[in-house]
Amino acid sequence: MTSHSSFPDVRWIDVLIPDMWGIPRGKRLDASAMEKVLSTGIVLPGSTYAMDMQGNNVESTGVGFADGDPDYPCQAVAETLAPVPWLGLDHAQVMLSMSDAADRPWWLDPRHIVQRMATSLGALGYRARVAFELEFYLVERDRDGTLQPAPPPGSSQRPSETQVYLMDDVEAYGPVLGDMVTTCRRQNIPADVITMEYAPAQFEINLHYGDDPLTACDHAFLMKRAVKAVARSHGMTATFMARPFGGLSASGTHVHISLLDDEGRNVFDDGSDEGSDIMRHAVAGLAATMAEAMPIWAPGANSYRRLAPGGWVSLAASWGYNNRDMSLRIPGGAASGRRIEHRAAGADANPYLVLAAILAGLNHGLSNRLDPGPPASADPAALPVLWVDALRSFDQAEVLPGYFTPEWWKVYSALAWSEFHTFNGHVTTLEHDRFLTLV
Length: 439
Known about the structure:
Blueprint: E1 12-18, E2 24-30, H1 34-39, E3 42-45, E4 71-83, E5 91-98, H2 110-123, E6 127-141, E7 147-149, H3 167-172, H4 174-186, E8 191-196, E9 202-207, H5 213-233, E10 237-239, E11 252-260, H6 277-289, H7 294-297, E12 319-321, E13 328-330, E14 340-346, H8 351-367, H9 387-395, H10 400-404, H11 406-424, H12 429-435
Parallel strand pairs: 1-5, 12-13
Antiparallel strand pairs: 1-2, 3-4, 4-5, 6-7, 6-9, 6-10, 6-11, 8-9, 11-14, 13-14
Helix pairs in contact: 2-5, 2-8, 4-5, 6-8, 9-11
């Protein structure tokens, strides 16, 4: 565990929580407060977990305006104490986790939700092994303000072609990508593989497998912050928007997951090429709950631009072997590494809620010994890929609210509908261009 004494030059410490959207929120404190942060903690409003994407309270949640917006204690997650290299030697950061006045886990804190799901899965005798893969673009604005893929460092030539897995492009962007990985490792974030993706200046950075689901989420959350900060230091913007460019590939959050028993054996592996019955039950639970969780996989307006034909994004709760066109892919390779790749979420999704919904789906499939049907079925269940349909599916959910709690489900629904109405209430320039004089 990292200690206060490991940071003798620190002048400032950033204390962070992931809000409902996975956006970092918190405070910057003088280093003199570090001892308090690491021992007794600080307080933050409970409503911080129930704000919209712009940081506004949403009255329909019943949290904030209705309850007087009380503060609650937040304890440091000591193992996340780390330097902040892009800010210099005088900065450190640590994550917080909120409790209520009776010292119980705060019901809206996404970290507690993941931990509860992992504990429920543990009651069945399984421990989840998890790895996140996160896709993003490096972008900049041209002289007229139009967003464009950013050229490599030291070059004025803007990329325009798709060159998936091209090592020349990885090398060209090497100064910024290498800085991202180095920064992550200095923060004990296990960044691993760098891949050129399916569009100009689109990349993926993978995180190592981990045996603690909550830690895996922390790493994904903190990696996104680090990637954005390092890109800024190179004069670029790193965006995890699901689809920043209409004609180019979308960005996703892919989660690789396997289950271990009490002896550390991968229970998805039974020695066969197909995988175990336990794996099939797990796949079935994930497929059965995928539509209910659509506003978690796709939290905002831009998220649904990713959900279009083509581009390796399935529009159905499908599964198959070594097939990236499926929502649930069973990757190839050695049977001992048998796992499920969950491909439904966009890069803009909250990693904590994504993994919580995945763990709940696994629990549902395993507890009820569900059957997913044949792989790559010609008629898998279609997903609600229009925003309003996804919200209605969420409100009609029958399985996942029991895992998340009905109270939490109602708050998230209120936030999601608020985002929907706020976005759709904005009249765009495109509408003026198309309709101002035509009609």
